[in-house]
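Working notes for the structural subgroup meeting. M.R. asked for a predicted model of this chain before we commit to crystallization trials. I am recording the input and output together here so anyone reviewing the notebook later can reproduce the run.

Input as submitted:
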Amino acid sequence: MVKVYIEGPDKNIIIKLLQSNDFLGLTSLYGDDVHYFSAAALKPTRACSIDREGIKKVITECCAFSRELSHWYCQNYNMMLTKCLNLGIRQLNGKLANTLLYLNSDEFKGNDPFPYLSRKDLAELSGMSMESVVRILSKFHDENIIEIQGKKIRIKNLERLKIINQTG
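Returned structure, recorded in token form:
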């Protein structure tokens, strides 16, 4: 599990959590050599580095790989647009609800991200301050929307959290 984030002067914004078989650094495949984000492993991780020309060759020669890569890229692009919407428009409750729904999505079935995420990471995923995350988590817990056990967060009222996500 790897967090991909943009570094800011005062705080970072975590864009996505990568898991096994995800790609990292494709944005510079056909563009410039500038990497616009950083990455850090949240647990012991093994990465495979493929040089730019090698991956371009596989894309050109293997239609199945090209389709799979295009599918992956489109999913991630859509997720980035949703992230922009989340950061720019939603109120704090909606931002955190969106993050909790993301971390409890099918994408993380069998690979619970919560043991690897600090409250600061949750704040950076949500585009919020850590104090706001702690306060809203407590509020969600008090309202019986979530259950908190240490770092583990379990959604108890999925429908309510979805409503907060949509209206927040």
